[in-house]
Amino acid sequence: MRPILKTLLACVAASAPFLASAQVENYPTKPIRFIVPYSPGGSTSTVARLVGTKLTEAWKQQVLVDNRPGGSTVIGTHALAKSPPDGYTIMLVVNSHLANGHLLKNLPYDTMKDFTPVATLVKTELLLDVNPTVPASTLPEFIALLKDKPGQLNVATIGSGSVTRLISELFLMETGTKAVQVSYQGTPQMLQDLMGGQVHFIFDTPATTLPFAKDKRLKPLAVTGPKRLAAFPEVPTFAEMGLPEIDMSVWFMAIAPAGTPKPIIAKLNAEINRILALPEVRNALALQVMEPYISTPEEAARMLRAVYDQYGRIIARAGIKLEQ
């Protein structure tokens, strides 16, 4: 029996690479779960459903968007970390995923080691908006005002680990100014108080800013990124104004559990990139003042590491603590 057993084991070992290759080549053969660690209805769900629908059409396998809100995205992220690394569970993350790694203690996963990037999806820049009554019409005038009144102006943000808090701290550090941080649970109340004069400035996305800027209810002074936005051609970039260090954007990325086979990651990446280049997808994103963010898995990994390190420096330097 021993020789026969050895022969069988040898046959199994020899066939394993071919079975693995077939699994990758035939992938996907069953539905894919696309976790979104937020409540339904927001831009994260919209983008996930947009991409998921196109993946379903292309591969004839259902891509199921699974909203798992709660715990500052920890509930959904932990569900991904526990999933088999087989390509059948992926998740959409945004900036706060990286901030959580610095702010939240005793996470049930390692932010950088337990996941692998699949593809960047979309990005949008951030605008510095001020209340129209603020006596500054340009970025230099506003910085001068902050220096003239240190700690007397308020900046609204959405929580410790939000991109709005991180970029506001970066702005204050790079300009050598001070302002009072006022935290909000969500964007609507933050905008209401900005336009009502309870706070003086915010950093927000172009999609949110646009209707209020048209009505002159807020005043955008500068935008992050390498170029001016088509929706705000009159608003200069921070780089144009001599402040290239103030560079931060909102981005969405698809990630998978660490250990997911590289050929499956590559297949997902290639198909998602094809989808992002479709005219109808680009048009749908443009309605939200978002643009496709196309990259290889390797480029996505480098971006993830660079941004994680940047957030760590800002959080440490500004002494940001998790709000209870």
From TrEMBL:
This protein's UniProt keywords: Signal
| InterPro entries to which the protein is assigned, alphabetical | BUG (IPR005064), Bug_dom1 (IPR042100)
Q: Which domain of life is it from?
A: Bacteria
Q: Where is the signal peptide?
A: 1-22
Q: Does the keyword Signal apply?
A: yes
Please give one Pfam family short name: TctC
Family affiliation: Belongs to the UPF0065 (bug) family.
Q: What's this protein's name?
A: Tripartite tricarboxylate transporter substrate binding protein
Organism of derivation: Alicycliphilus denitrificans (strain DSM 14773 / CIP 107495 / K601)
